[in-house]
Amino acid sequence: MKLYSTNNHDLNVDFPTAVFNSMPLDKGLYMPVEIPQLEAEFIQHLDEYSMPQIAFHVASALLGDTIPAADLKSIIDDAINFEAPIVPLKDHEYVLELFHGPSLAFKDFGARFMSRIMAYFLKDNEKTLDVLVATSGDTGGAVALGFLGVPNTRVTILYPKGKVSDIQELQLCTNGQNIHAIEVDGTFDDCQALVKQAFADAELNEKLRLTSANSINISRLIPQTFYYFNAYAQLLKAGKKDVVFVVPSGNFGNIAAGLLAYKMGLPVKQFIAATNVNDTVPRFLETGIYETRPSVQTYANAMDVGAPSNWVRIMDLFNNDKAALQQVLQSYVYTDEQTLVGMNHLYEDLNYIACPHTAIAWLALQDYRKSHPHEDFEGVFLSTAHACKFPDVFPEAIKAKIEIPEQVRSLAAKQKHATEMDAAFDSFKKYLNQY
What we know:
By secondary structure, the chain is of the alpha/beta class. The chain has a domain at about 80-100 and about 220-400: Rossmann fold (3-Layer(aba) Sandwich). It has helices at about 15-20, 40-45, 50-65, 70-80, 105-120, 140-145, 165-175, 190-200, 200-205, 220-225, 225-235, 255-265, 280-285, 310-315, 320-325, 335-350, 355-370, 395-400, 405-410, 425-435, and strands spanning about 1-5, 10-15, 30, 85-90, 95, 130-135, 155-160, 180-185, 210, 245-250, 270-275, 330-335, 380-385, 420. The protein has a six-stranded mixed beta sheet, with helices on both faces. The protein has a five-stranded parallel beta sheet with strand order 9-6-7-8-14, sandwiched between helices. The protein has a three-stranded antiparallel beta sheet with strand order 2-1-3. A hairpin with a 2-residue loop joins strand 1 and strand 2.
């Protein structure tokens, strides 16, 4: 597998280089030189394959001979060892539950795959790999559990003070071992900027072997394609085909993976990016002007991103042709008040308890259906996190009905360990230089 930078298509690196470097020096993002087309026979018979089998086929097509087949199969069987079911809520409407992994968020797919890929390529006696990750909520917990105890790695997680839920914070700050948490007095965008500045700092890169666990890393993006193919496989089993995917979107890595799956041959009628009031992409699709803004805190905190990193990948997939992209992608924006209404409707009308991110996706599906009343399709909206991670958002009547998984109950007995820090790069650099 060869990859180029979105800022320089003449650049060519191999997959291990892209994994460990995370981001090219020109500050673009890595993308495959060739996007393979999966066989029509495979697509038409997806319903005959299990999730690990689908994942292996998709990953093999993308990675080529980078990893021997037996080793790749072992990595996938170990990393993707939980389900991602589509749950019917009513006729032609399904929720794709992506929260059945260890951290109870869709980020488990990317984090577990990436950690095992990095461990596979790490050589004995090499310099310790320093994994930097900024999180607006769920990424940090997934990365922490994905890398916990992985030899020769050290993980530093930056999260915005007061802007993640209590459970999310405990998942970041109670691991110990090779996992370190920094509580940044700022926004997610500040955390993300610190990580990117670290990668661009020559002195740090001379001293440390830095890589990222954010969705800017191509090894995070690849496994997120798996559940789109698997969702389609489940629809085929039910005799359904025409699908619209609705994706809660913040840093736009999740929907970028869906669009990559589409480019590989997955038949999707439409993608919908559902956002909160951090609406950089919806404004661009409407006006043609891409203007980032400081992120705004909302109930859907994992989507509080004012400068979504993965948008350059999406534009690159469509050769920066906005009109071509808009044939496949639409977007809707929702306030906190609308989000609460959606959460209540899901519970009262469909007996389904959804986190705020999931409710935003459901709202977008309803609005898309209203604007396309004569079209027949299966609407699949993605549920990206377990509702228990956001207890303060729910009214008491719904909160009392949320089932609390054992891994969450056990967090209460653990002690939080985090370093408080301002949002200045000098402070972060000083911290890293202490390693």
